[in-house]
C-alpha cells in the first residue's frame, strides 16, 4: 500500500485511521504460504443507517475469523462436506417439507456438490434417475415431486441431475418431443418464458428453458425467437441484470441472463451485441466485498456464499467476451469460502452465524471451482456450430496463479450448464448422435394437445 | 380436513418411485392432505372442499406451486364471493413467507381476475395493496419480490407519480444506502418525468441532480446514488463530464501537469467516474492516476478490474 494520506476534512478522522490501521495489520497477517490477506477500503462514512449497521456487523465477524484462522485450518474440510451431502440422500425429517416441491433441486445440489468434491457417485445412478423419472410429467418436462405439474425450474434441475447420474438408457426415457412442446407452450411473444402455465415470467425461466433445450438438443429458431432481445432488456442502469425489465440488478438473475445469452452464441460475439459489456463488467466487479472477499448479490447488500457462483460464475463468460482474465480477486474469494463458509460439522453456508444447506453447499463449491480454474471458449469451433451447440465449447485448466491450500481443490465446471466438465457434453453428444439416426419431429402444427390437462398432473 | 367430507375419494398415496432418494418423512397431516389433494386433482374437482384443502397445504408448504396453480383454477370456478376473500387470505401468507415466489404472481392473477369482472371491479383497493407493500418493506426494506410487486402495481393501476415520488424519498431518507429504493426511483422517473422520448424539463433534471448530490453528501462512499446518477445522465443523454466540477468535492487529484498534488478522495465511486471522464476527454495521464489510486489505495480488492480499465485506455 502506498502511504498517501487521505484528506481528513468532512469525515471522521479517527474512523479512517482505525480502518487504515486494521487494513495494514491485515496485510501483515498471513494465513497460508500463499500470503492470503484481506484488502479493505480506507474510506468509511460516518452516517449510520440500517445498511451500514448490518455491513459493519458482517465485516467484524469476517475480519475476526480471517485473523484467527491458522494455516492448518485454511483448507477444505472435504470429508465432512461429503458426509453432510450424503446425509441428505437418506430419509429427511418432516421440516424438509419446504423442499417437497423442489426435489429435483435437492438431488441436483447434493449430487453436483458431491461431484465437485470428486466423489464417485456411480452407485447413485439408478436410484437418482428412477426417482427423477418418476417426476416426469405427462405434459412434458418435470415436476418438483410426485404428481406435481411440470415447471421449468425442476425440469432444469432434473435434466442436469440425469446428466450427472444417469446413463444412455435412462436418458432415452426423457420424452424430448413433449419437453419441447412444453417449452414452446411457455414461450411468450416478447421472447421470454413463463416458469409454468400461468406462472411468473422472468430471466430464471429463460435460462432454465434454454439450458434444458441445449442439453436435450431441442433448440429451434422458433424457441429462441426474440429471446436475446428480451434478455438484453433485463440489463439495468447499474449494469447488472434483473428478474425482468425495470427490476433491481441481482446476482442470481445476472448469471441467468449471461449464461442464457452464452447458450445462444459465442460470448465475444453475443454479449457485446446485446448488452453494455463495460457496465456489466463494472457492476460484477463491484459485487466483490472488501474486506470479506466474497460477493454480494446486489448493491449495498451483504456478502453471501451462494453468490460465489451466481456472480463468480459470470466471470468465465465475461472474461471470454472481453478477452482478459483475472478481472476479480480469485484468492480473496477462495479465502472467504474457506474461512467463512465452512460449517465445522460439515456443509457450506451463506456467512458466519448462519446454518449450511444443500443449496449453499453446491453453489459455494461451484464458486470455489470458479476461483481455482481458468476457462477458455473455442471461438474457431463456434463459427460453424449448429444452434444449441454454444454451451459445449469450453475448456478449463487449473489456474496456476492461485495458491490452493493442500486438499482444497475442487473439480472444474462447464460454466453455462454448471455441471462438472464432460457431463453436459456427454448428454448432448448422446442426443446429437441419436438424432442423426432417428431424427425427432419437433413440428407443432398437427397436434393440438389437450393443454387443459396440464394443471391436473 | 375436518370441515369437509372427503371419504368418497380414493386417496392417491405418495410415491418417489421404486428406489426413493431423499424421501421426506412427512407429517401425518401433510401426507393425508396431499393424498386427498392428488385424488381431487385427478378428478379435476373444483370445489370449496378442494379450496380449503389447498389452504391447509399451503400453510404447511407455501412453496408448493402445484397447489397454488390448482387453487387459481378453483377460485376461477367458484367465482366472485371467493375471489373477494382471496386477497385477504394471501395477506396472511405474505406476512409469514415474504421470500416466497408464489405469493406475488398469485396476487396479480387475483387482481387481474377481479378487474375483468364488472360487478367487483370497484372492490379493488389499490390503497390496501400499497399499505401491504409498505408494511412488508418496513420489516425488510430491500425485499426483492415486494419491490417488484410495487412496480407491477404502478404499471397496472397507473399509480400517482407524486405519491410514489414521495414514497421513494421517504425510503431513501430512512436509509440512503437502500439500493432497492434508488432502483424504484429510477424506474419511476425514467418512465415519467425524465422519459427521454418526451421533451423533458431541464429544471426537473437540475432538481434531481441536486437531490442526488445532497444524498451523496450524506455518505459519499455509498455506491447507490453514484450509480443512479450515472444511470440518469445516460438515460437522458447528457454528458457526465458536464458535472465534473461537482465531483471535485468528493475526489480531486489535480489537473493535468500538476504531478505532486496531494489527492483528496472521499469516495472511490467519485474517483471511478472521474477516471471515465478523463478517459473520454483523452486525459490519459489523469485517468491512469485515478485508476492507480483506486487499485493501490482506495479500492484494492478490484485491482484486477482497475488494471483492465487501464488497458482499455486508448
Structure description:
The complex is a heterodimer of chains A (457) and B (314). With 457 residues, chain A is mostly helical. In chain A, 46% of the residues lie in helices and 3% in strands. Chain A has 20 helices and 4 strands. Chain A has a two-stranded antiparallel ribbon with strand order 1-2. In chain A, helix 4 packs parallel to helix 18. Chain B has a domain at 251-314. Chain B has 16 helices and 2 strands. Chain B has helices at 28-42, 48-60, 65-78, 80-96, 103-115, 118-121, 126-139, 144-157, 161-174, 179-191, 202-218, 223-235, 244-247, 268-280, 284-298, 303-312; strands spanning 251-252, 264-265. Chain B has a two-stranded antiparallel ribbon with strand order 1-2. In chain B, helix 15 packs antiparallel against helix 16. The termini of chain B are far apart. The relative contact order of chain B is 0.05. Classes of the chains: A mainly alpha (457), B mainly alpha (314). At the A-B interface, helix 2, helix 4, helix 5 and helix 14 of A face helix 1, helix 3, helix 5, helix 8 and helix 10 of B. Chain A: It is an enzyme of class 2 (transferase).
Amino acid at each position: 500500500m502506498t502511504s498517501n494520506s487521505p484528506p481528513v476534512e468532512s469525515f471522521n478522522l479517527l474512523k479512517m485511521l482505525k480502518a487504515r490501521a486494521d487494513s495494514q495489520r491485515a496485510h501483515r497477517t498471513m494465513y497460508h504460504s500463499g500470503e492470503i490477506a484481506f484488502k479493505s477500503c480506507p474510506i468509511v462514512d460516518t452516517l449510520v443507517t440500517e445498511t451500514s449497521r448490518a455491513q459493519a456487523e458482517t465485516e467484524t465477524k469476517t475480519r475476526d475469523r480471517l485473523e484467527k484462522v491458522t494455516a492448518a485450518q485454511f483448507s477444505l474440510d472435504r470429508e465432512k462436506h461429503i458426509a453432510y451431502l450424503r446425509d441428505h440422500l437418506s430419509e429427511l425429517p418432516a421440516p424438509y417439507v419446504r423442499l417437497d416441491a423442489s426435489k429435483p433441486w435437492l438431488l441436483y445440489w447434493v449430487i453436483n456438490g458431491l461431484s465437485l468434491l470428486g466423489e464417485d457417485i456411480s452407485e447413485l445412478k439408478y436410484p437418482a434417475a428412477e426417482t427423477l423419472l418418476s417426476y416426469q410429467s405427462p405434459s412434458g418436462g418435470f415436476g418438483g415431486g410426485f404428481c406435481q405439474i411440470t415447471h421449468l425450474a425442476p425440469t432444469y434441475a432434473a435434466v442436469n441431475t440425469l446428466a450427472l447420474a444417469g446413463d444412455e438408457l435412462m436418458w432415452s426415457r426423457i420424452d424430448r418431443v413433449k419437453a419441447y412442446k412444453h417449452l414452446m407452450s411457455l414461450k411468450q411473444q416478447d421472447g421470454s418464458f413463463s416458469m409454468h402455465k400461468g406462472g411468473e415470467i422472468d430471466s430464471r425461466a429463460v435460462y432454465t428453458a434454454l439450458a434444458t433445450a441445449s442439453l436435450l438438443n431441442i433448440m429451434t429458431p422458433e424457441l429462441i425467437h426474440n429471446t436475446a432481445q428480451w434478455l438484453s432488456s433485463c440489463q439495468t442502469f447499474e449494469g447488472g441484470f434483473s428478474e425482468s425489465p425495470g427490476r433491481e440488478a441481482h446476482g442470481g438473475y445476472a448469471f441467468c441472463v449471461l449464461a442464457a445469452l452464452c447458450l445462444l452464441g459465442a460470448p465475444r460475439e453475443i454479449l457485446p451485441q446485446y448488452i453494455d459489456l463495460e457496465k456489466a463488467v463494472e457492476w460484477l466487479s463491484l459485487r466483490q466485498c472488501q474486506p470479506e472477499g466474497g460477493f454480494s448479490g446486489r448493491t449495498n447488500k451483504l456478502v453471501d456464499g451462494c453468490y460465489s457462483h451466481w456472480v463468480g460464475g459470470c466471470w468465465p463468460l465475461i472474461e471470454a467476451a472481453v478477452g482478459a482474465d483475472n478481472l476479480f480477486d480469485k484468492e480473496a474469494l477462495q479465502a472467504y469460502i474457506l474461512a467463512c463458509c465452512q460449517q465445522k460439522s460439515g456443509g457450506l453456508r451463506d456467512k458466519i452465524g448462519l446454518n449450511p444447506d444443500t443449496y449453499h453447499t453446491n453453489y459455494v463449491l461451484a464458486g470455489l471451482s470458479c476461483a481455482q480454474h481458468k476457462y477458455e471458449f473455442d471461438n474457431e469451433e463456434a463459427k460453424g456450430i449448429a444452434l444449441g451447440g454454444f454451451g459445449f465449447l469450453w475448456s478449463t485448466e487449473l489456474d496456476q496463479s492461485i495458491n490452493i491450500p493442500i486438499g482444497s481443490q475442487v473439480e472444474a465446471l462447464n460454466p453455462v450448464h454448471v455441471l462438472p466438465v464432460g457431463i453436459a457434453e456427454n448428454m448432448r453428444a448422446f442426443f446429437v448422435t441419436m438424432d442423426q439416426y432417428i431424427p425427432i419431429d419437433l413440428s407443432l402444427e398437427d397436434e393440438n394437445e389437450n393443454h387443459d390437462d396440464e394443471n391436473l398432473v | 380436513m375436518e370441515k369437509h367430507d372427503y371419504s368418497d375419494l380414493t386417496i392417491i398415496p405418495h410415491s418417489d418411485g421404486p428406489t426413493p432418494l431423499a424421501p421426506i418423512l412427512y407429517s401425518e397431516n401433510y401426507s393425508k392432505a396431499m393424498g386427498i389433494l392428488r385424488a381431487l386433482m385427478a378428478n379435476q374437482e373444483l370445489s370449496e372442499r378442494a379450496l380449503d384443502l389447498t389452504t391447509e397445504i399451503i400453510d404447511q408448504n407455501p412453496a408448493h406451486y402445484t397447489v397454488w396453480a390448482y387453487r387459481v383454477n378453483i377460485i376461477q370456478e367458484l367465482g366472485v364471493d371467493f375471489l373477494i376473500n382471496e386477497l385477504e387470505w394471501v395477506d396472511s401468507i405474505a406476512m409469514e413467507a415474504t421470500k416466497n415466489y408464489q405469493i406475488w404472481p398469485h396476487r396479480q392473477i387475483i387482481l387481474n381476475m377481479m378487474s375483468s369482472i364488472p360487478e367487483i371491479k370497484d372492490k379493488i383497493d389499490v390503497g390496501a395493496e400499497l399499505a401491504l407493500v409498505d408494511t412488508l418493506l418496513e420489516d425488510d426494506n430491500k425485499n426483492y419480490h415486494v419491490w417488484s410487486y410495487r412496480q407491477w402495481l404502478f404499471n397496472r393501476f397507473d399509480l400517482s407519480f407524486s405519491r410514489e415520488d414521495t414514497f421513494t424519498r421517504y425510503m431513501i431518507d430512512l436509509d440512503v444506502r437502500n439500493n432497492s429504493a434508488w432502483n424504484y426511483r429510477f424506474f419511476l422517473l425514467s418512465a415519467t418525468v425524465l422519459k427521454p422520448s418526451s421533451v423533458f424539463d431541464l429544471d426537473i433534471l437540475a432538481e434531481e441532480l441536486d437531490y442526488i448530490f445532497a444524498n451523496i453528501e450524506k455518505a459519499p462512499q455509498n455506491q447507490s446514488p453514484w450509480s443512479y446518477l450515472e444511470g440518469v445522465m445516460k438515460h437522458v443523454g447528457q454528458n457526465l463530464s458536464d458535472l465534473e466540477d461537482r465531483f471535485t468535492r468528493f475526489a480531486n487529484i489535480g489537473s493535468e501537469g500538476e504531478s505532486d498534488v496531494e489527492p483528496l478522495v472521499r469516495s472511490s465511486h467519485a474517483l471511478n467516474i472521474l477516471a471515465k471522464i478523463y478517459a473520454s476527454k483523452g486525459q490519459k495521464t489523469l485517468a491512469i492516476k485515478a485508476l492507480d489510486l483506486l487499485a493501490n489505495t482506495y479500492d484494492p480488492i478490484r485491482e484486477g478490474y482497475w488494471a483492465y480499465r487501464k488497458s482499455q485506455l486508448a
